[in-house]
Structures are given as structure tokens and as C-alpha cells.
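Rotation project, supervised by the postdoc (A.L.). Task for the rotation student: set up a whole-complex structure prediction and record inputs and outputs verbatim in this book. Inputs entered:
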Amino acid sequence: MLKTSASFVLGSSKSSTYPRGYASGFDSPVALLDSRFEHPVLWKASVFLLVAVLSQSWLPVFAQTAETKKALSPPQDVRVFDTPSDGGGSLTVLWAPASDDSAAVKYQILLSEGPTPPDPAAMKVVAEFPANQRYVRESKWPWWTRPTTGDQHQFALRNGKGVELKNGTTYFVTVAKVSGDNRALATPVQATPEPNWINWNQMNNLLLALLFGGIVFYAIGTARKREIFLRRIPGLDAVDEAIGRATELGKPILYMTGAHDMSDPSTIAAAVILGRVAKRAAAYGTDLLVPHREPITMAVCQEITKQAYLEAGKPDLYKDDSNFFITSDQFSYTAAVDGIMLRKKPAANFFMGHYFAEALLLTETGASTGAIQIAGTDADHQLPFFVTTCDYTLIGEELYAASAYLSREPVQVGTLRGQDIGKALILGVLGIGTILATLGVMLDAQWPHIFLDVFKDVK
Amino acid sequence: MNFFRRQVPLLITLITGIVFAAQYYVPHPASEQMLTSVTKWLQIIGGFALVLGVSSLFHVHAVKIRRKEVGWGYSFVLYVGMLGTIAVGLWSNGKEAIDGTMTAFGWVYNFMMVPLQGTMFAILAFFIASAAYRSFRARSREAAVLLIAAVIVMMGRVPLGEYLIPISGDLSQWILNVLNASVRRAILIGVSLGTVALSIKIIFGMERSYLGGGKE
Amino acid sequence: MTFTERMLKIDRRIIFLVIGLCTLLPLLYPVGLPIKISPEVRGVYDHIESLPEGSVFLLSLDFDPASKPELHPQAISLLRHAFRKNLRVIAMTLWVSGTGMADQVVTQVAREMGKDSGKDYVFLGWSPGGTAVIINMGQDLYGAFPADYSGKPTKGLSVLQGVASLRDVNYAVSLGAGNPGVEAWYVFGKDKYKFELGGGCTGVMAPGLYPLLRSGQINGLIGGLRGAAEYEILIDQKGKAVAGMDAQSATHLAIIVLVIMCNLFYFSSRNRARQQGG
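Outputs recorded:
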């Protein structure tokens, strides 16, 4: 291609012989190039190619320079308002996403106090974060209170950590976009934090609570009008058997109502079952011992026992001190009852109510005396001990069901029915919710949240 | 008289029950302030309940001593212990130690109460073993499953078990995190529904046993 | 009575003796087996590790002397960790019978770590009301505890600077042996006042708290003596919990052997009864 060994550099590493130029005596560089190439069109093509390559390699540099010199657009559609459903001291800022939101770009939230629009330069920066964060979809708004679509940016200004927002005071808030040395501010927007009277985020909770209450009332109403079927609790058959055994052996019955006071459902259930046990004990003429940890429970159980003896037609057999108070201290009570078990050797022990660590101490001592033992508790952490040491155990709600089964009072039976309906609803929600949540993830869809949010606990 | 023993408490329960159920949904500071005031009252009443417990104890055992019933000597010991601890506690201003030096009250607490309570709790370890020996028998399929799960968890929760059977640690974690957690949740849901239902009945006066007495 | 029948009806005191020896001998002659760290305990540790210096750490020692063997080592480890991280420690208790013990453990560890009361930590003591105390602290800490356990007014203490209520607490851990305990702190504390919560409890209660752990309501759980031993390993200060693990290992193994033996005797006697009946 070249007349001589020399070649012009066209982006290659080959050495070149610079043209001697005008000093060499040629008329022009063109003439020089003509002399060097066999075909003049070749050098023209080479030069053209060289220029094209060089201009390409330089282009990004020029483009970058152009880009950096382009001004940042300020955040668009900035809205600031009092955060709804809270106790005050908070403002929510929303603004539209931008196409250039990335980790390299940052958003700043600026705040100033006062009724007049401030100088943006004087506003205090209270938060800064990468521009690809803080979206409405990441926050906990349920669909009925969500202020805007999930793709919008959101930031909640709250009291604390360098920010103080007083209720009733006007503040100006704006959002700035920062990239390197460039900064673009949106127009400041005015808002006033105020406390709210209703937490709309928790309306689902209220509605569900009212629904459940309505179901319970409906069930109680139904129970008052007709008989509602309750399945037989196996442990209850054993109650009669245990009382019968105690009568045969001529030994007393020991009955405990648990560690909690009368406001606990387990203690109420225990007191109801005591009425049934006391009635049978009265009918058979068996001694009944009921040691208590709580004076008010003792007073209630005394009345229940007295009533039971009256209904059994044996008021003369009733002893006032069959219900007696020992102490409220856990292990002192346990030691005292263990002593009663070892001395009096009751033939039947009933452990009804809520128990803590004393459960095994009581039941194991009772087992060592050879008594038949029946337990009923909603204390799930003590259930393993009751199950291993007692002949029969009523687990959790079986205790509540037992009291309803024995008393057959419409209120008790209806409540049980209402709880069962509530549980069936929860089961249904769990099943449907699991399917919908799975579909939502698989299809990357938001519509399952219409159902799921209703059962979510949002604060 | 019945009005003050029955109707007034029921009315108070109804009003306060509804107000404080609604309070949960009201975030306004006035609502929070109301809750704070009421909880302060609860704390005051809680203090009175302590006094009530002690006075009940005094009364019950005083009757036993006066009538010289069976075991009245133990009631006398209880009186001495209780009065002695109260006297010592008042003398030490309720403090177990002052400037690093143990007080008499601290001595009673550290050398009587702590060992006694610890002893009672420690008996559980022995009772668990004897109960397990007596009852952990594979009488049925369910009992066998219970037994196997118990052995795996017992092995997995101690270093020796994990050393002898390395997989027992992971298995016991799985049993606790998956099987146990799901079953506990089920029991918790059931018990919670029961508690809510009972609370509704108490608020609306359908359940009155907490007031004392039997049927009306 | 055959041998198997005698073994099935064995005197409980022999079992008690076996358990007693299995507890005593490893304490006298420790073995020191390795202890694997569980994710539940690591959750509490990692969170405290992540807290910057000066953060507010609330430790509620909700247990009485009966639960001391399991929860006392947990308290010591947590306090050592918190003091080592130079956190501001607020200690308290919701159980009146545990007040003296709580005061002792806080004072002992603080002295060991060279921390000053009022400046680095405060022990608030006990206040009646149980869960009502938590609610009151959530509104106004100084109203719930106007003075600390030694009688010093809480307002003005440098350790409580900037702490007006539970909302200002960075991390709370409740070491609970019953009620009120971890669940009460969640329901009346974290749920309302939005602080991060961890839990510690006795071994018996631990399975019951797994639903709270799995759902993220508590971010970690130190269960029983094993949990305390794991925490001691994590903070690299072995104490009574690690020492107790050998005894616990031996006891668990003894119970398992007893249960297996009991089942062997049971099946043997059942087969004999079937053969005699058949």
C-alpha cells in the first residue's frame, strides 16, 4: 500500500515515519501523502477512517461534559400534609418519582418553621437518602388510607432525632434533589401537624372485633331459643368417675382453681366446674377441699359451693371452711397443698385453671399418693406436665367448653358456639390469604392486598 | 343495697369497658392522657391489693391460733416470720444493701427467701425425671410420636446430645420453630378468642361471676 | 413380682438419686463440650452489637429467686455486653420478690465493668401495677418512676438525658419467668410505643414464645440455661451457664436412658402379659 516502509498511524501500534512536511521540500501535506501512497484514494480513505474513529472515542467525553453541564430537574408534584391517623407531631411528604432516580442521586428533606415562605438556603436538612428509596409501596399504609399510588416517593417527618414538630405550628417543607455538586429544590409547601381523633388504619381491627362480638351475641341469642349441640368432652366423664372413686374409698376430693383471679376466663371456668363437682360431692356425701390463692376467688367459690349443696338437697353437709385461703405466694401455696395431699391423701385431685411452675410439683405429689387426677388448663407451657402426670387433661379451650357443657347456660353455650364460628372464619381467612399471597408474589400483582390488608395489623 | 353491689359495678364495667376499648382506636393525646391516668389508678389499687392479701393472711391464721385448730403451731410460725420480716424491712427502709453492706432485710432475703424459692423450683428437675419415667411410655401411636419428639428435643438442646448425634440440634430447632410454633399459635388463637369473648360478656354484663355469688 | 414389674414400679427416690448425681458430678468434674449458637440467641446479641455507643438499653428483670439459676446468668451476660458497648442501661423489674436480686446483679456487674450509677446506668426498682407500669413508662418514664431504687430523683440523671418515655428506648429486653413478662412487654410496650424488643425466659416458657419470635414481634430469644450459655460464649465470658451445661447434658441423657429403659420394661411386661393371656 505504501511506497515506502513508512505508514501513517491509523490507531495501530505500528511505527510511523512522520512526513517531512514543508521542510522536506514538498508543496503541501496532500502532495506529501500523494507521494507516499500508491493510490491517492487510499490515503483519503485512511484519513477519513482515522477522523471517524477519533471522533467516536472522544464523543462520550463530549457527551459527558454536556450531560454534566445539564441542570438537575427539581422534584415534581411535592405535597406535604399532616400525617393522618396519628397523635400529632408528624408530617408526610409525597413527591413524584423521576426517571433518573438512582443510588448515585440523593433526595434531601428540608424543613423550616414559620408562617411565611422561607429562603430555601436557610432551610434545615433533616434527612437525606438515595433517590431509589422511600416509596409509598414500602410503607405500611392499608389500601383504604393510602394517599397515593405505590410508585410515589414518601417520607414521614416525626418528632425526635433532631426534628421537633409542634402541633398547631405551621412548617414549610421541601424536597431537594442532589447529584454531585448540583442541587435542585422544589417550591416549599406549607403544612401544620395536628393530632387526630380516629386511627383509620385500624378500622379493619375495629370492624373485625365488632363482627366477632356480633357473632357471639347472635350465637347467645340462638342458644337461648334452641338447643345447641356440644360434643362430649372425654375428661368430663372422668369427673363423675373420680368423684365416685373418692366416695368408695371414703377419702376427700381436692379441687384447685388455679393461680389467676376471677377476671381470668380459666378461673371462671374452674369455678363453674367446681359447682358441678360440689353438687356431685354433696349428693354422695364426699368431703370437698378447695384451697385458694386469691381471697376474692375464695369468696366466689364459697358461694358457688353453698349453692351447689343447696341444689343437691344437702345444705346440712355444707362446710364453710371447705373453701379456705392459704397464701398468694406461688411456692408457699404449693408447699401447703402438697402437705394437704400427703396428709389427707385425697382420692381425686382436680387442677382447673391457670398454672405456672407449681403445676408439676402439685401433680407429681398427687400422683405419688395414688389419686386419680384430672386437669384443665389454658396454660400451654404447663400442658406437657399435666398430660404426663394426670389421668385426663382438658387442653386450652376444652376447659371453657367443659364449663359450658356442664352448666348448659345459654350464655356459656352461645359463647362457645360464637368462638367456634370465629375460629372457622380465621381458618378460612388463613387458607384464602395464603393462596392470594402466593398468587400476588408469583404474578407480581397488588390486587391480593385488597383482601390481605383487611386482616393485617397496621398501626 | 343490691343496687350498689350489683347495678353500680355493672354500670361502671359497661362504661369503662366501652370507653377503653374505643381508646385503642383514638390516637389523640387526650386519649393517651386518659389511659395514663387510669393506669396510675390501677397502680394505686394494685398497691392496696397487696395490703388486702397480707391482711387476709393475718386474719385467717389469727382465727386458727385463737381456736387452736389442728396445725395452729404453723400459723404461729407464720405470724412470727411475717412480723419479723416486716419489722426488719422497715428498719432497713426496704433496702437489701446500703452502700454495699448487706442489711438485716438483705440477710433474710438472701439467706432465707432465695434458697427456699430456689429449692422449690429445683425439685421440679427431679419430679420431671420421675414423671417422665412413669409416663413416657409408647402406649399408643400418638404417645410414641410424643416420646420420639421429646427425645430429639432433649438431645438437641444440650451440648452432649449435639456431640453424640449432630443432627439432633437442627432437628430440635425445626421441631421448635415449625411444629411447636404452629401448634402454639393455634392454641394462642383459640385462647385469645375465648378471652375476647369473655371480655365482651363481662363488659355487657352477661358474665357476673367476678362480682361474687352464684346464680341470681 | 417380676424384675420388669419391679423396675416399672421403682421407688422414685432412686430416680432422684440418679438425677442428683448427674447434676452434681459434672459440676465437680466439668467436661466442657462445645456449644452451638442458635439463631434466636444470636438475634439478641447482633442487635446489641449494632447499637451505637450511648444508645438507651432497657433491661427488665421480671423474675424472682425461683428462676435465678436460669435467668440470672442471662442478666449478667446482657449487662456485661451492654456495659462493654457503653450503652446507657436502664434496669428495672415488674416482680416485687425479684427486686433485691435485680439490684444485686446490676450493682455487681456495674462495679465489675467500672460503671457509675446515674451516669452509665440506673436501677429504677419496682413499681406496683404490672402492665400498668409499662403503659405509664410509655407515656412518661419520670411519672412512672419519679426516683430510682436508691431514692435519687430520676429527672436530672445524666443516663436518662433525652429519655422521656419508652419511645426513646433503642432496645428493650425482658427476662421473664411468667406474667408479667415478655408477652406483656410486647402487648403493652412495643406494640404501642414502637421500640425494638428481645426476650429471655426459662426453658419451660421458651417454646411458648416461638410464635412471637417467628412473627418478628421479638427479634431474639434467650431460652433457659442453654440460651444463657450461648450468650456467654458470644460475649466471650464464660460463667455459671456454661458450667451448668455439662450438668444439664448429663441430666438430659439420664432422663433419656431412663425413658428408654422404662419403655423396654413396659413392652417386655406387655408381651409377657399377652403370652400368658394368649
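Student's summary: Chain B touches chain C through 58 residues (CB under 8 Å).
Supervisor addendum: Residues 137-216 of chain B form one domain.
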